[in-house]
Amino acid sequence: MRRLVLLALVGLAAQLVDGSLGMGYGVTSATLLVSAGIAPAAASAAIHLSEIGTSLASGVSHHALGNVDWRTVLVLAGPGALGAFAGATLLVSLDARVAVPVVAVVLVALGAFVTMRFLSPRRLRFGGRPRARALAPLGLVAGTLDAVGGGGWGPVGTSSLLASGRLEPRKVVGSVDTAEFVVALGGSLGFLVGLGVRGIEWAAVAALMVGGVLAAPVAALLVRHLPARVLGVAAGGLIVLTNVQTLAQWADATGVTRGLLASIVFTLWVLWTAWAVKLEQPPADPSRRAQGILA
Question: Does 6 score more than 70 pLDDT?
Answer without folding.
Answer: yes
